[in-house]
Each structure stands twice: as C-alpha cells, then as structure tokens.
Amino acid sequence: MTFLKRLMYPLYEARLVRLIKGRPQPKHVAIMADGNRRWAREAGFTDISHGHRQGAKKIGEMIAWCRDTDIEVVTIYLLSTENLKRSQQEVQLLFDIISDVVTHLSRGDLDCQVRLVGNLDLLPAPVTQRMVDAAEETKDNQGVIVNVAVGYGGRQEIVDAVQKLVRSEAEKGTSAAEMAERVTADSITEHLYTKGLPDPDLVIRTSGEQRLSGFLLWQAAYSEIWFTDTYWPAFRKVDFLRALRDYSQRSRRFGK
C-alpha cells in the first residue's frame, strides 16, 4: 500500500495542478500552522520540540509551493499572545525556532520578502532584534511577501490600530467630535499590522480545529476558510493544492 501511495502521489498532484490552472486563485493565503505538539505525541515523541522543529521545516516548503501559483502574499501564524502563557521552557523553544525560521526565509533561493506582524514588544529584545535584522535583509526581494505573525492577537491588533489612529489625529489637533467621524473602517485598516496589503482570500487551518482563534479577525471578515484534519508537520503539497482547488470552486459574495 505504501508503494502504491508513493506511485499515485505525483499523479494526483499533477491532476490537482491541472484542475486549478486557469481557475480563480487566491492572491493572499493565511495559514494557521496548528498541530505541532499533537503530531509529535502521536508520532511517539516524548519531546514536543520535534513537532515544533518539523513544523518549522514545513514553512519553507510551503513558500516554495507558491511559486507555481498566483499567490503573492502568505501570512503564517506562528506565535499568538496566548502561546506566550505556555511554560517558560516551551516559549523559549518557540522563540529560538521562530527566529531560525525567519533567518532561513531570509536566505537561500526563496527570494521572499519577510515582514513581521504582531506586538514585538511582547518578545525579548534579543529575539526581536534577530528577527528584525533577518527580515530587513529581504526588503528588496521580489518573491512572495511572507508575513510572520509573532506575538500576535487579533483583538489586540484592532485595539492597537484604533489607538494609533486616535494618537495620530490628536497630534493634528483634531477635536473629539471630529475624531469620532474619522474613525472608519478604512482609517482603522490603514493602522493594522498588515497595512498596505490585501486581505486574505483564503485562510487555511490545519489539525482539525475549526475556529479562527483570534487570527486576522478584521482582515478575514470575508475570507474563504479551509480546514483540514492533517497536522501542520504532515501537511503536504497535495493538501495545499486541494485547498486551492476548493477555493477555485467557491463563489465569493463578500456578504452580498
């Protein structure tokens, strides 16, 4: 059976590529890379770091898969504000792994442009500086824009955006009455972590969970959402192509 699966895999992958060719494809894909710890436990590892490290390797692979698609932006959720409440040992492990991910993406032949989205003040200064320096190296790259969401919380992002907007207006001397009029959907959008980028067309969440968990709450209001039971470390190119195939078959209405 294993041999048969290996034989059929490239045929199925090629079929999926044909099915999405010429069909609508997302420009911006957001990924909730979930299930690293459960993958490690079910694979028999007592040390969950194996799951986190395997999941980290998958990120570069996924960015490479985008080359043959119309995808221009990828946002990947790696560290939420809730994750920071885990044990000190696991949080430090995540800091190290995510820093390695950003460094890896900034080098090699991916040619992606890395951006950090989230409240970086929540991270230790050395960790933040390492990631900022690595991301800076990619600013002139021409490939896929990769938003790495670290220290990220969707509600906090909206709060931060409104506060930045209010401060900006206050500095201009705007009165309270006028300020209320200037708080609009467009003005808030201009102060989000992802300002200047299109909202995600497609949100993919791995591991079987079917919720957004605070991810891009504002931006994903009209996104198509695709769930899979596959854990992130086991996510394959055929899974990715299946998500794109399903997206191509949907009729987007944007609330109409």
TrEMBL record:
Keyword terms, alphabetized: Magnesium, Metal-binding, Transferase
Active site: 34, 83 (proton acceptor)
Cofactor(s) needed by this chain: Mg(2+)
SUPFAM superfamilies recorded: Undecaprenyl diphosphate synthase
Top-level EC class as recorded in UniProt: transferase
Record: residues binding substrate: 35-39, 52, 80-82, 86, 205, 211-213
Keyword Protease found: no
An example Gene Ontology CC term for this record: plasma membrane
Pfam family, one: Prenyltransf
Organism superkingdom: Bacteria
Annotated family: Belongs to the UPP synthase family. Z-FPP synthase subfamily.
Quaternary structure annotation from Swiss-Prot or TrEMBL: Homodimer.
Protein name (record): Isoprenyl transferase
